[in-house]
Amino acid sequence: MSRTLAIEPLTAAPFAPFGAVIEADIARSFLINGGRTRRFDALALADPGEDADAALSVFRGAPWNAGEDGPIRIAMLERHPLGSQPFVPMERHDWLIVVAERPDPAACRAFRARGDQGIQLARGVWHHPLLVLQPVQDFLVVDRKGPGNNLDEHHFAPGEEVLLLPG
Amino acid sequence: MSRTLAIEPLTAAPFAPFGAVIEADIARSFLINGGRTRRFDALALADPGEDADAALSVFRGAPWNAGEDGPIRIAMLERHPLGSQPFVPMERHDWLIVVAERPDPAACRAFRARGDQGIQLARGVWHHPLLVLQPVQDFLVVDRKGPGNNLDEHHFAPGEEVLLLPG
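Structure tokens for the assembled complex are given below, as produced in the milestone run.
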């Protein structure tokens, strides 16, 4: 029987094994531009890896369960062994993140991000592809553009899928 | 008498001397994640310069005319000689960009960006600090974190200011 994964609110401490939370953190901020702009500084450093550029792309996500009301079925994980990958919402809607310390259904953890929270997945972190809750939601991504294979995929065995019920 | 600057809609061709427009451009897109995500690929490459990281920060902008209805007074320009600087809205509101090929009021050009359009200022491009139209608007910025002076400012002489009337 498929296991239903608890969904935790996204905060920095529990997410730390997987990467950084990119959000307006007053403790890391200061005023610039004559007081007109508050800079929340260096919330993450791009890590595109060796001999590569950090490319800015837009990812337009659609729901994994194709707009149905049923659970979201997590049947695989992927990782980018050569570089980090941030996702920052360009529209203020909650979204979901599934990550794991190893490619194993039992290791999966799920986080619900607010629409003003992005993340940077550290290099090599296992994760599910983008999980949005709206019919469509755009994200800015800053990831490696360079040589080499930067994608590993792991598909779970039949019956090993985990389920998400975002409610 | 101060000159009022015409505001052009932001499109890639007129902005090209200053940098890149970061927007969902179907011609540069392909489907990934089993068809659930459309990737608008490599709309800009981060250029943090030598011996530096590309840091992800949030800039929270407030209006330059402090919420008044009057014109926005452009009295200075700045540039970052060592690295590029993108601004990507994290909320879908129009915003303004003032850029110039030289630090001269007569060279200033103004663009109105939609809320789904970001830009990357190329290294060393003269620009006005962030110009928002909402009481507050957040942007993701990916810029240089490294040694050296990465800020030049040029203040216009009294009476040389240019005005923006965003309407």
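Helices of chain A lie at 12-15. Chain A has a mean pLDDT of 95. Further analysis is deferred to the final report.
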